[in-house]
Amino acid sequence: MIFFSKNIIKTYLLRNALNYLVLVFTSLFLIIVTNHLFIVFSSTSSVNVSLKEIMELLFYRASRDIPLIINLSVVLSFALSMSRLYKNQEAVVMNFSGLGNIQIYKFLSPIIIISIFFQTLFLMEISPRSITFIQSFKEKVINNSNYLKLIEKQFNNLGEVIFYASSIDNSSNKEIYQDIFIFDEKKNDIIIAKSGIKTNNRETNSIQLMLSDGSLYKGLYSDKGPSISTFERYSLPVYNIVKPFNVNVETSAMTSLDLINKLNYEKYIELISRFNQIIMFLVVTFLAVSFSKDTSRKSTFGTVKTISIFFIYLTILSSIDNSIYIKNIEIVNAIILPHLPFLFLSFLIILKDLKARKYVITSIKKT
Length: 367
What we know:
Layout: H1 2-43, H2 51-64, H3 66-87, H4 91-96, H5 101-107, H6 109-143, E1 156-157, E2 161-169, E3 176-184, E4 189-201, E5 206-218, E6 227-240, H7 247-252, H8 256-261, H9 265-291, H10 301-325, H11 331-336, H12 340-366
Antiparallel strand pairs: 1-2, 2-3, 3-4, 4-5, 5-6
């Protein structure tokens, strides 16, 4: 009879947790996608990119964050579903059945196992490929002068340079500007030119405007007044081309097999960082179940504690990653130290749970 009731409780717990999981995951995913949508459209408004490229960038940015969404969604779904049981006094049934946090965690294990599978898949394979695409896209946009979008009859802000052209001819492979006005804010110079084109200068590693037939007004605000000169050809750097991946981005953009095949100190750190997130997931989901007992009809303290623990844990892991990268902490310590306080807390909860379970079993035997 007890076995049958436990199966009923297991089904009930899984159904509630899954309902909350779908709701929380969908909500978080939509929030993050909306945020990425705003960032992508605002950052690409001044460059020539197609709608297809924008949607691809949006897709890869969202898929990069899936491990975090899975992690937080499962933790919140456990906290909310268990908190609901305690708010509605339904947890009394579980307590009378002799169920504790460990048993409940086992009941929810199908969700945990599936979540770990997808989290591992994204952490080890899919997210690194997404990062690779995002970085390649950024380099493509910045390194290709054709991606710099200049609008005719408008003042275009190019950082330290304000650019204006009465007309822009896009009929050829190169954009040709006519009747150009430029204000260099850094040097306080004004340039007026009849025409110009945009080019990449690989020697100086910059994008330049090649201007023809114009005048240069140097030192516009100097005490002696501006010095005026004319030119047939004049080259004006607009912005510097980005350098290739830095080490951090390069390693985070590698799949796990690539990291293992090219294993060195930086690659080892990246592997540790990914495995630490999975360990964190296991610990925080257990704490989410345990903290739910602090929830009452008028309080959501258990859920608040769970969310706080989640972000504190995440911050500690991030700090540890930075510390081992600059060699302020040994790798062995980086594997153990961030998890110790949370594992110790889980151990205390398990001891308390075992004592309570023993008490319930003893009481049942006496009756």
